[in-house]
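Z., the sequence and structure:
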Amino acid sequence: MGVITKNILIGLITILPITLTLYVLYWLAVSTEGLLGGFLVRMLPADMYRPGLGVLVALTLCFLVGMLMHIYVVQRLFSLGEGLFLRLPLIRSVYPTIRDFFEYFSPMKKKDFEKVVAVTLPNFDLEVVGLITQTNLDRMPEGFGHEDCVLVYLPMSYMIGGYTAVVPRERIRELDITMDEAMRFILTAGVAGIDRRDHEHSVPTLDTDPTKRNP
């Protein structure tokens, strides 16, 4: 590989992640402003609207909703409304998947998904990186797994797929890395590596006692 080509590739690898991240943030801001900005233009006097006001209103609404969701009554009302929403034919097929995905990032939940483990494959001297998604047997399908098992998601490199497997606790070993580090490691097939110099030991401890289950 020539010097010019090599430097161009290094430049692309350096610039593209930053550029794509900024573009996604820009797209979100423009989309939000386009959605709420037009509404504000019609609702407010002409001299009161300023560019960016739609984004500010969206952030304020998100903050207020987040504050209200800490109130039990609001949570119950939301659950009732969500139940009615899920009765719609098309919505009930799409909404639960989207909701469950975003719930993994919710700070209101205790997330087993943040526990990164190494899973020993039976009959092979191999370990694969996995993410625990469920430790409560009552929340698994009837007859799926047993008391001494947990549910582990095994993502494939470059995020082309993955497997959800019931794994005995004796075959998992907790790794001292965060979920973000694990996802970057898996996404790049280990090419990115783990920077141990700045790594802090703050990974949640995995409860290996099968008699203790999450409520």
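DSSP finds five helices and five strands in the chain. The chain has two domains: 3-103, 112-187.

Let me know what you think.
H.
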